[in-house]
Every structure is written in C-alpha cells, then in structure tokens.
Amino acid sequence: MRTAIDLDKTKTHLALALEVVHHDRWLLGGLRDGRLRVIAQSPPLAPGADQNGGVQPIYQELSQLARRCLYERHPLAVTSMIENPIPDHDWEAGWPALIYAPVGLPKNRPVGIIILGSRTEHWYTQDEIDYVAAIGVTLTAVVSCVTGPLGRLTPGERRIALLMAEGFSDPEIATALGRDLATVARVADTILRKLAIRSRREVRDLVPGLSAAARPHLL
Description:
The chain has nine helices and six strands. The chain has helices at about 5-15, 65-70, 90-95, 125-140, 140-145, 155-165, 170-175, 180-195, 200-205, and strands spanning about 25-30, 35-40, 60, 75-80, 95-105, 110-120. Helix 6 packs across helix 8 and helix 7 packs across helix 8. The longest helix is centred in the last third of the chain and has 15 residues, at about 180-195. It starts with 6 loop residues before the first helix and ends in a 14-residue tail after the last helix.
C-alpha cells in the first residue's frame, strides 16, 4: 500500500520523469495564500546561485508568467533570445526557455504548478509541453495534501486521512497500518475536527485526483 505521501520519493520520481524533457532546473509548487509553496525542486546549479545562505525558501511570489498559466489553466512555454542570461537565482526572469504547467485536474482550478527552465536556448516542442502537463495532472493529490486542507495534519494523521478518503473503515485502517482500533478511531475524530468537517466522506472531497482513475503514482 502506497497511500502515505513521501515527498522524498515524489522528488526522486519527478526528477526521473522529467529527464526526458530538456531542462537545467525544475520546481514543483502548490498554491497557498496567493503565493507559491515550494514542495520540491532541483538544487541550485552553481555555488552562490542560492542567495539565502544555502537555504532555499519555502514560499515565493508567483511570477507574472506563473500567474498567467494558472489563470488560463493551460500549460505555457516561453522562448526568447537572450545573449547574457540573468544569474541562476533569477532563472524565471532571465532564462531563455521555460515551461509552466498547472497542477490539477482538467477543467478544475489548479492547485499548483510545475516550472522547468533551460539556461540555454531551446524550443520546446508540443510533445514536451503536453508531457509536462500530463505529469501535472498526476501530481494533483500530492500537491493538494501538502498545501490544501490536509496540510494542517501531521504526517501520521495525513496517512490515516488518505485511507479514509479511499473509503477504508477504521478496522481496515488499523490492520493496514498495524495500529490498534482505538487509536485509529481517536485520530479519525481529530482529523475531522482539524478539517472542520462532519463526515468521513467529506475527506475525499479535499483530495482532488484521488479517484481510482487519477490516483497518483509518484507517492
């Protein structure tokens, strides 16, 4: 069973999935309070690229292109002729080739975004753009769990909440996780209280993309 979110595995699998697309850097972020909550990203490319003492920020402001992608709910590719690219820490502002792909289910409001960038000139093909956009759909549940209402829960609570969302009963959850039934029941009550909902069925509505057809495989 692979319901619990493992962000390290998500980052590893996402990096592998993106290897077939030309890029020098990528970022996966979720939307929270009008800003981008960085969930996973490739490391700075060179010493000094990170201007925060080696600590990459968790939150950052959305760029104009990111906002446009999210507003239009459609992937966006940008290619420009730049003789002297801006340093790596301003890669969105000054790299010649970028892809922005919304994270979310088709025809629904995006919950996050994937950004890829090339520090050298590159013309992204429609196949590359469509491929990154498809990855964005598979990451819907992952991003929702981190930046959506389930982000208020502890990792242990989130594990149980995801099983609840899939329709597991307390005895089934207890068996799956090797926990005693009383503990699972107590945590389930805590989850409902933290999420301000009354029914276990409502948990599923808080995790877009968790249906059998769209269940993420990057967990």
